[in-house]
Amino acid sequence: MGYLRGFVPWIVSGAVSSFDWRWGALGGLASGLLLLLQDRRRGVGLDALVLEVSAVVYFAAVGAVALAAPHAALSKPAGILSFAWLAVTAWGSLALRRPFTLGIARRRTPREYWDRPEFIAVNNRITAAWGAGFTFICLSLAVGGAVRAPAWVGIAAHVAGLAGPAVFTRVHPARARARLLARAVPVPQEQ
After folding, report:
1. Most buried pick, 17, 117, 137, 142, via CB within 10 A?
2. How far apart, in whole angstroms, are the C-alpha atoms of residue 139 and residue 24?
3. How far apart are the first and last CA of the chain?
């Protein structure tokens, strides 16, 4: 569940934004910077911190707007904007052939597997699952807002859009590993 650590700034921002979006942006920025600095001090490479760097950039921009134009109308579309940013982060990392989950997975995987096509393919699929989840939430919130859907619709979109990729992230690597082992040619036993 270490991959969820990268979502802490978004969680902090969401919780604090229920009081004031501007403080939510600053809370997201502060928690993002704190996590980023902690990980860098531990020697974690930037490739494993794509989500954290993305959060810092996003919250720095939103925080700058919050300070420069405190009455800006960012409070209503904040959820849509944040999930759009997360979707761009996920899809952008895939377009650059550096899925954001790759660095995270490398922290828990022996080095000899890092360059294997199967390892990269698993991370491409996991990143795509997160990208799809973020996109789903973003679109659901936008459509829900446009048609004035009840609050439970947004809550359901959040649950589905986050739980699906989280479960996939947990289950898919083990299934991929099992498929690879099943395809492996058995080595004859010496008698």
Report:
1. 137
2. 22
3. 44
Q: Say how far apart CA 27 and CA 23 lie, in whole Å.
A: 6
What whole-number distance in Å separates Cα of residue 37 and Cα of residue 44? 10
Q: Dump pLDDT digits (tens) for 124-182.
A: 999 999 999 999 999 999 999 999 999 999 999 999 999 999 999 999 998 988 888 88
Question: How far apart are alpha carbons 11 and 187 in whole angstroms?
Answer: 49
With contact defined as beta carbons under 8 Å apart, do 87 and 136 qualify?
A: no
Q: What is the Cα–Cα distance from 163 to 173, expressed in whole angstroms?
A: 16
Say if residues 144 and 157 touch (Cβ distance below 8 Å).
yes
Reported as type and span, the H/E element at residue 63 is: helix 50-68
Around Cβ 160, how many Cβ atoms within 10 Å? 14
CA gap 27, 37 in Å, rounded: 15
0.85 surpassed by pTM: yes
